């Protein structure tokens, strides 16, 4: 199928769903889009029993979209830049300690907890998977998705400091999750005995250090260029060139796209605009990136919904999904509670906020993209199905009930 046709169909479907949600359903944008796309896919699968032509066509459309590459190599860069560009650097600096711990140690704890729990609990429900693949499942599902998180919490009633922590964590924990995913996948492929420590170390250094250095250098260069001009169109083009250039460079040199783009976004933030024209230009630039963010978010979550058409059927389908949801919530809770327990003297996060932070840790396109990138192993379909259930539950159920949870715990939250 022609690339332009695929893009055109995605935009058309996104526009239709966005209109239906804004006009009739009136849910928060991301939740409404995911809900409509999921319902549409389920209806199509039901109609497939009568006439398979529609499902076959949409299945072909979904297959023509290389979801993993589209998310990880293209869309992610734009969406992360938008989030980091508009993030208040002063607030982030103030909350950097919990953000750092949760985005590093928290992801490792969550991966280990999810993998171990799934390995020991799943056989009770006649679901069997080797420990290394359970850990692989944990690695791809542990990072909170910055796209889903930013889309949901911007309409929530979260206290400002919690919003900064959760947003900051979601921006930085993708890189740790991706590195863990690659390492565990390599162990699963070659075996624990054959894994090369030097190779793993080089991967970590290259991904993290390379991503941060590239993002800082190019971000600072873009900062200087944008600061030296007043023309709005030129400033926008520089910001677009920064995101695209970094994404291409990161792919070519095996750097971390999330880290490089987030670092660049923090450098090219509000201080990048010439002071004589700052108010007008920066306001317009913020609106531009907000528009880009909203459009790409809509298209991205339509793509997630369409993936359901090609979702493989596995035995104990609903059991697998329900079990995965329960375990990921437990693992998320542990990944917050344990760091706060052992580092309570240095981390300034109140224990009463743990449940809120657990529920606000949404999963999204990155988890599905990583699951789809798995090689054809006997456990790929199981991991993909579980990931899809987690993402849909996360966006729709957790997204819709987050404010209710915040309100019920408002007396315990210290702003």
Automatic annotation (TrEMBL):
Belongs to the monovalent cation:proton antiporter 1 (CPA1) transporter (TC 2.A.36) family. It is a multi-pass membrane protein. It holds the Pfam family Na_H_Exchanger. This is Sodium:proton antiporter. InterPro entries: Cation/H_exchanger_CPA1, Cation/H_exchanger_TM, Na+/solute_symporter_sf. It is found in: Cell membrane. Coiled coil: none annotated. GO terms for cellular component: plasma membrane. It comes from Mucilaginibacter celer. Keywords: Antiport, Cell membrane, Ion transport, Membrane, Sodium, Sodium transport, Transmembrane, Transmembrane helix, Transport.
